Amino acid sequence: MPTITVGTACIPYRIVGDGPDTLLLVHGTGPGSGMWDAMLDAFTDRYTVLLPDLSGSEAAEDDGAPLTLETLAEQVNAVIDDAGRGPVDLLGFSLGAVVATAAAALRPDQVRRLIATAGWISAEQDEYLRLSMATWLSLADDPTAFGRYATLTAFSRGFLNRIGREAVEANTSYMQPTPGTLRHIALDLALDLAPLLPRVQAPTLVIGCTQDATVPVENTRRLHAALPTSTYAEFDTGHIAPAEEPAAFVKTVRDFLAAA
Mind telling me the catalytic residues? Predict the structure, then answer.
């Protein structure tokens, strides 16, 4: 697995598949790039997939300083440079959607097409979002409550009932209050994407989730409205549309990327 040094951080990334085009997947708040593993087979027929683990994820190493949006965006762009496969198609989820958008703004030459799923501009624009993130951060001393809150806000009520109690309880252990995850949430609260939005040049698809209790969909619609050349799609799911509607999510992504 390649590992690169970016500032004070050692950032590993995986390379999966050997397709002619390149797709880089940017993970959201939490453990790291493993969130994408269940759908990699849906892309590797066409794409060589790059999966970085950014600062705050379990696999990355750095000095533990507070994270900034620019820091994580720089890490994404450094992976593209190191892999030597740019410009790439860039898909980010949640915090990863914000980071991917920032990466596209800072290095327009690196990104062919951009997909931002369940992203936002700033928690200061939505008191619900700000309070929700602050509440999650306040549960750091109770790992059980921290994981339950993450599960409760990540999925729609219908999906949780559909998968059943055993799967729901198993899911609550996925998100834990590690130092890195807490740094991610602090960044979720503090970031402001607005100054970078005018610099995005790549054709962009913004994807929102109508039942999103983590990042209410109005925030994602606001991100779309702030990107005049973007198109918009919406899923009737909770925050993690790739988990609730994987086939439809993959089709939407592939259709947009194929329309070059």
Answer: 94, 212, 239
